[in-house]
Amino acid sequence: MQSYLDGAVRVEVLGGDAAAGLFRGGDARGGVAWLSRGESFAFLHVVEFRAAGDRRGFHVHGGHDERFYVFSGAVRLLAAVGGERAEIVLSQGSLASVAPGVAHGFIAETPALAVSFGSGTDPMLDSAPAPALG
User: Fold this and answer.
1) What is residue 88's predicted lDDT score, i.e. its pLDDT?
2) In Å, how far are 3, 67, 90, 96, 104 from 87, measured between CA atoms?
3) What's the average model confidence in pLDDT over 93-106?
4) Cα(54)–Cα(86) distance, rounded to whole angstroms?
5) Residue 37 vs residues 13, 19, 41, 61, 131: alpha-carbon distances, Å
6) CATH of region 2-133
7) Sequence-distant (≥ 6) Cβ neighbours of residue 120 within 8 angstroms
């Protein structure tokens, strides 16, 4: 697992070891990813990026964490907190965790399909724009 912005953003690439907890696997029929075990979350969104350069997010949440898992393709995560900034490319199998108070947004490197989920306050009621990110 990689950590950015003093641990406010964490990224791991899920592998095929189910005993390790979260994992990604599959066969000729397609892939399966276990993204959560033994916890509940307040929201789950499917996010589609149809073309390279498509942008999503560019906001900050005060009352909840957000996780973002890339099923296919690649996206660039832009994140900022306390005057520090990070850009991280997330590819297929990457799971990013963003803490409350971290401004974040995504730019597609390729067409991509992802899921966003988390706990805490409803993100539709807990988002403020973060246009300075990009």
Assistant:
1) 97
2) 12, 16, 10, 12, 10
3) 94
4) 19
5) 17, 12, 11, 23, 34
6) 2.60.120.10
7) 42, 61, 63, 64, 65, 100, 126
pLDDT digits (tens, 9 = 90+) for 60-92: 988 888 999 999 999 999 999 988 999 999 999
Going from N- to C-terminal start, the domains of the chain cover: 2-133
Q: Give φ, ψ of 72 to 5 degrees.
A: -150, 155
Can you read off the two tokens belonging to residue 125?
A: 């009621």
Contact 72, 49 (CB under 8 A): no
pLDDT at 114: 96
Q: How remote is the C-alpha of 61 from its chain's centroid?
A: 13
> Mind listing the pLDDT tens digit for each residue in 10-48?
998 887 665 556 667 777 887 777 777 777 788 888 999
**Six-digit token pair at 51?**
């073309």
For CA atoms 117, 77, 97, 91, give the dihedral sign. Answer: positive
What distance lies between CA 127 and its chain's CA centroid?
15
